[in-house]
Amino acid sequence: MLEARAAVRGLKEYHPPLGGRVGLRLDFNENTVGCSPRVLERLRQLQFEPLARYPERESVERQIAAHLGVDGAGLLLTNGVDEAIHLVCETYLEPGDQVLIVVPTFSMYEIYAAATGAQVITIPAGAEFRYPTDEVLARISSRVRLIAIANPNNPTGAVVARSDLLRILRAAPDAAVLVDEAYFDFYGESLLAEVERSPNLFVARTFSKAYGLAGLRIGVLVGSAAQMAMVRRVSSPYNVNAVALACLPEALADQEYVRQYVAQVRQGREWLEQELRSLRLHFWPSQANFVLVRIGEGHDTFVSALRERGILVRDRSRDPGCDGCVRISVGLGGQTEQLIVALREAILARTQLWVQG
Predict the structure, then answer these.
(1) Could you name the CATH architecture of 37-254?
(2) Prior bond to 95 cis, omega within 30?
(3) Contacts of 144 (CB under 8 A, 6+ apart)
(4) Fold of 6-30+256-356
(5) For residue 100, which of 55, 135, 152 has the smallest C-alpha distance?
(6) How far apart are CA 203 and CA 178, in angstroms?
(7) 3-state SS, residue 137
(8) Cα–Cα distance between 44 and 50 in angstroms, integer?
(9) Of the candidates 294, 219, 211, 305, which has an alpha carbon nearest to the alpha carbon of residue 254?
(10) pTM to 2 decimals?
(11) CA-CA distance, 177 to 85, in Å (whole number)?
């Protein structure tokens, strides 16, 4: 009887709660108001011809490379950051290799790495979710072929200091070091400038968050030209669809739209964190477009209470070290005001239940 590979049969399944997402969606860290109007106009102008032929990504890749200030030979457009992670794993991992990840973090690092038959070594984050650089350095050996780091991290919003990232890069010259900068726009610090000096460094970005293109599934992977030539060998030549390729230049050209959105999200993040302090809820300062909050006992009831009030948030209590935690994405002004009203009501309802109990 036909069976999947043993590595695949043993994989953890990832089940995003996509059904019935009605209301203010603060559960997936999406852009809460959508993409630039220029993108919508480009969509309206699309004719049959681009959709009837295979997509050509090279010209758009040149534009992205110029925007990022990197060598075009070292840049590949991908089907979201997910594919970028997958390609790095497929290029460099074999059964018996080791992969280092600090948890909690984005689930797909472990899933894609484990699917190759590699051994995934999870290292718990330090106190207050600080990145345990010394512990990571201590685990580096000749068997380690990939170190995946989300910076800022999901679901905590914590960041790794540039100096620590460089220490890891230098300590693991035979391993691919993937720095996932999906939330770069809300943080502002990047390791892209190090790519040309560090042949084992890969940097991934997405246009799903600040740019509001999650539905088009488009991201970018940057590395040295020599290493990216290897990555391209395992990539489909048609991995990014024609609609995404048509819209991305318009999204990129409207930097004022992105700047305004990011500035408003940062303001909303500060407002939300201030409210969480006043409610005496423990949270972790975030450099992304979300905040992780420890609700504690009754966190599932809290999530349901917000849903009843038209707001979706993400229960992350099953993540390592996140018992009783909920992740809340940040929207714009009126959306944050709506969230805070619902937050106060949900906390009050929970308190009353405790008193009655």
Answers:
(1) 3-Layer(aba) Sandwich (3.40)
(2) no
(3) 97, 98, 99, 100, 172, 174, 175
(4) Aspartate Aminotransferase, domain 1 (3.90.1150)
(5) 135
(6) 6
(7) helix
(8) 13
(9) 211
(10) 0.95
(11) 11
pLDDT at 355 over 50: no
Task: Give ranges for CATH 3.40.640.10 in the chain.
Answer: 37-254
How much helix, strand and coil, in percent to the nearest 5, is found in the chain? 45, 15, 35
Residue ranges of the chain that CATH labels 3.90.1150.10: 6-30+256-356
Q: Which residues pair with 292 in a beta bridge?
A: 284, 327
User: Which of 353, 245, 235, 243 lies closest to 297 in space, CA to CA?
Assistant: 353
Q: Copy the structure tokens of residue 7.
A: 């590595």
Sign for the CA dihedral angle at 177, 180, 186, 192 comes to positive
Q: What is the mean pLDDT of the chain?
A: 95
Q: How confident is the model at residue 49 (pLDDT cuts 50, 70, 90)?
A: confident
Does residue 63 surpass a pLDDT of 80? yes
CA distances from 38 to 51, 345, 346, 349 (A): 19, 38, 38, 43
Helix (H) or strand (E) holding 201: strand 201-206
What tokens were used for 55? 């997509």
